[in-house]
User: Which sequence fits this backbone?
């Protein structure tokens, strides 16, 4: 007898939807009736659109904010119940209606927020139909698991074990949900024809680079690192990000592609894949027998997935360019390490998650699976409050001092930096006019931090001389900004940068180093202008020079309020300290 199954997913990239539709395909082949509902459509007042928009903005413009909120639930588990109540208040009524309309025997969720709502409905006895969560991530975030969800299905035993520690008593690992067209036992000759279509020679070592359907993350940095790693041919899939595709096409190396639905052919043609999220595409590569390397993982779940997959040996996690080169060298050629990694990854496909879904529906068939009990009617005031709370959530994720409090999204020393410090010198107009100070900044290999007001007044000629001598410039802000934060950020980042680059020929400003605490608005504007936020570990005043410099620290020498002669003496003393302790100085542009 066929069962009626409702799957709740979310159009947040291809991962959640991909698992939902593959599960639907398998269940329908077995003769069951399946409906797929988008959780975002269950949220009234456009809240679903707001959730998706916020997530996209976080990943593209302010990834530090997604990292901040993602880690918040680890650090503040007491907020978990509030999130559950809020999600239920917003989407519970429409989800209940969808279950009733489908007359479902079992409900499957492939998205964390819908799992929370369904688990809460089971807890309150508003829902008698059994609920299954399919965990699409290797790393199981606390918000993925609700203790009143009946079954948690995972892509790996690693994820299932984590789910059990978070309260999911019945957690199993049937494996990833991947379409059959990715399986390694495809038609013979696929690899040869796929490589011919890409113009790859027999000896070419092709590296497939993926970043999801949105093309998020540092794809350009990954492309550059692969090109620098050796004789590799990058095949980059930019998804629907046409801007990224056009930017990479100017590199004149490798194969740059936009959106494609022929990933099986690309995987057959390439020797190794580099990814950054640990999602659906990684699982597809496992099925295709293509070894996977994670590099520059995206914030939040991307970093956790990278750690989880590498810990069980199904991928390699390259944390820097040297490790990426080593991984590509090993995995792009036949060898024992490559074979073992492919075998471990293929071993994840232990069984069919569809069988677990059907088994749960059949096991509960003899029990009382009547329609959901009617939920208490939500007052209009509650719904309005939910809208306001989600608006506040958006402001929290994109606002208010999160950068400086957690250090997420701030430029940091590279891992390989040893016996090295990073120095910037904030210069006023009077100090710029002093040849001895300009010479000291050049000798220190420091970044000259200039504000826009200074350049447009008296310091343009002196700044031009610094640029001519290949001294790095940092944007110090406008010098006197507005008090309203969005306008202040625009003035300090956009107006100041324009003043420097329009006044000084050949000036490149890559770092934003304001003389104040920065916030999310600074991050947004700096990202749009291609600048990185730099926060000093120590601000040095000429009258209070340190006797010892800390390795890998960021120092900003601030001469404001002192006489030019004092700053010149301070820089000479700093140079002497570096020589004495055998520490190398680097400009702020050496941060990453």
Assistant:
């Amino acid at each position: 007898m066929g069962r009626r199954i409702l799957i709740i997913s979310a159009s947040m990239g291809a991962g959640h939807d991909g698992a939902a539709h593959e599960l639907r395909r398998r269940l329908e082949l077995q003769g069951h009736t399946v409906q797929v509902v988008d959780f975002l459509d269950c949220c009234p007042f456009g809240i679903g659109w707001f959730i998706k928009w916020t997530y996209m903005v976080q990943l593209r413009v302010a990834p530090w904010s997604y990292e901040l909120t993602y880690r918040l639930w680890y650090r503040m588990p007491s907020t978990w119940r509030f999130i559950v109540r809020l999600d239920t208040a917003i989407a519970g009524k429409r989800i209940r209606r969808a279950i009733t309309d489908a007359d479902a025997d079992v409900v499957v969720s492939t998205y964390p927020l819908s799992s929370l709502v369904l688990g809460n409905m089971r807890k309150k006895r508003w829902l008698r139909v059994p609920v299954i969560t399919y965990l699409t991530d290797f790393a199981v975030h606390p918000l993925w698991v609700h203790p009143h969800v009946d079954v948690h299905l995972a892509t790996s035993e690693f994820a299932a074990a984590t789910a059990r520690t978070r309260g999911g008593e019945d957690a199993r690992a049937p494996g990833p949900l991947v379409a059959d067209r990715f399986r390694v036992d495809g038609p013979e000759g696929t690899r040869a024809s796929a490589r011919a279509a890409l113009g790859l020679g027999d000896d070419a070592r092709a590296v497939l680079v993926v970043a999801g359907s949105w093309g998020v993350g540092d794809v350009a940095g990954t492309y550059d690192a692969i090109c620098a790693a050796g004789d590799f041919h990058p095949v980059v899939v930019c998804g629907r990000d046409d801007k990224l595709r056009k930017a990479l096409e100017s590199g004149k190396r490798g194969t740059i592609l936009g959106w494609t639905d022929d990933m099986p052919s690309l995987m057959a043609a390439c020797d190794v894949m580099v990814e950054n999220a640990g999602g659906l595409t990684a699982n597809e590569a496992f099925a295709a027998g293509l070894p996977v390397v994670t590099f520059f993982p995206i914030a939040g779940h991307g970093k956790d997935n990278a750690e989880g997959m590498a810990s069980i040996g199904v991928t390699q996690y390259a944390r820097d360019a040297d490790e990426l080169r080593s991984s590509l060298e090993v995995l792009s050629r036949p060898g024992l390490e490559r074979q073992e990694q492919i075998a471990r990854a293929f071993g994840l496909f232990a069984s069919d998650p569809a069988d677990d879904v059907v088994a749960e529906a059949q096991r509960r068939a003899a029990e009382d699976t009547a329609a959901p009990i009617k939920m208490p009617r939500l007052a209009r005031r509650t719904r309005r409050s939910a809208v306001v709370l989600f608006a506040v959530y958006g402001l929290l994720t994109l606002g208010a001092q999160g950068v400086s409090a957690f250090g997420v999204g701030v430029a940091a020393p590279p891992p390989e930096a040893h016996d090295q410090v990073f120095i910037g010198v904030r210069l006023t107009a009077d100090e710029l006019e002093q040849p001895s100070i300009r010479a000291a900044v050049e000798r220190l290999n420091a970044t000259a931090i200039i504000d826009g007001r200074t350049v447009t007044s008296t310091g343009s000629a002196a700044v031009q001389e610094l640029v001519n001598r290949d001294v790095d410039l940092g944007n110090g802000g406008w010098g006197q900004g507005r008090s309203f934060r969005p306008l202040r950020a625009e003035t300090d980042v956009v107006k100041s940068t324009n003043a420097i680059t329009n006044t000084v020929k050949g000036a490149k400003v890559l770092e934003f180093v304001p003389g104040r605490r920065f916030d999310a608005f600074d991050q947004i504007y700096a990202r749009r202008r291609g600048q990185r936020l730099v926060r000093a570990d120590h601000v040095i005043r000429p009258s209070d020079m340190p006797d010892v410099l800390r390795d890998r620290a960021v120092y900003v020498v601030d001469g404001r309020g002192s006489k030019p002669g004092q700053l010149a003496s301070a820089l000479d003393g700093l140079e002497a300290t570096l020589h004495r302790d055998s520490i190398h100085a680097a400009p702020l542009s050496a941060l990453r």
In short: The mean pLDDT is 85.
